[in-house]
Every structure is written in structure tokens, then in C-alpha cells.
Write a structure and sequence with these properties.
six-stranded mixed β-sheet, three-stranded mixed β-sheet
């Protein structure tokens, strides 16, 4: 369903360890917006929702709401660091097009 690269797992693990409250997992979601129609969202969650799909990627638990599941199927999330900055990069086979910034996409 979702794949986190080794770099992404390490980054999420660092964020979880640095968080002040207990973390149930990393929520990966799709919301409307961005320059292409949909955009990705990530946040640490203290509790999983009753209707969440939970995917384990190594030591990281991914929480996905029912609406986001079909749009995230097969996605790979990486964490990249470069001179321009660092952040999560999404490779989504469901995207029919994406914007130059890489944080939004469209799907049919």
C-alpha cells in the first residue's frame, strides 16, 4: 500500500523521538487544494481513528483515513536532504499530473 524509504523511516523516527507527547503513528492524508487539485499532508498523531487503515513500515505506523486510501495506494515516500533544503518527497502512481513543487497532484 504505502512504502517509506529508509531515509523517511529515519526522519519520522527522529520526529517521533523529539515529540513531547506519545505518538500512535504518522498520519498521511490527501486534502483538496494545491496548484494541481490535491495535496499531501503529514502529521504525528497521538491516537489512531476508529476507521483508519494502519500500515506498518519498519518501526513506523502509518495512519490513513478512508477517503485518502485509494489515492495513496502504491505511493512511496522518501525524505531528501539537499542544499536547497530537506523534506518529504512523494512518488504517487495514481497521480496523472503533479505540480513543480511536488506537493500537489491531480488524479482521475
Amino acid at each position: 500500500m504505502i512504502t517509506l524509504t529508509e531515509n523517511a523511516v529515519k526522519a519520522v523516527t527522529r520526529f517521533v523521538k523529539g515529540n513531547d507527547t506519545p505518538v500512535a503513528g504518522l498520519r498521511v492524508m490527501i486534502t483538496g487544494g494545491g496548484c494541481s487539485g490535491f495535496q499531501y499532508g503529514l502529521r504525528l498523531e497521538e491516537k489512531a481513528g476508529d476507521d483508519d487503515t494502519i500500515v506498518e513500515c519498519g518501526t513506523v505506523k502509518i495512519l490513513i483515513d478512508p477517503i485518502s486510501v485509494p489515492l495513496l495506494s502504491g505511493i512511496t515516500i522518501d525524505f531528501v536532504e539537499s542544499v536547497e533544503g530537506s523534506g518529504f518527497k512523494f512518488e504517487n502512481p495514481n497521480a496523472t499530473s503533479s505540480c513543480a513543487c511536488g506537493s500537489s497532484f491531480s488524479a482521475h
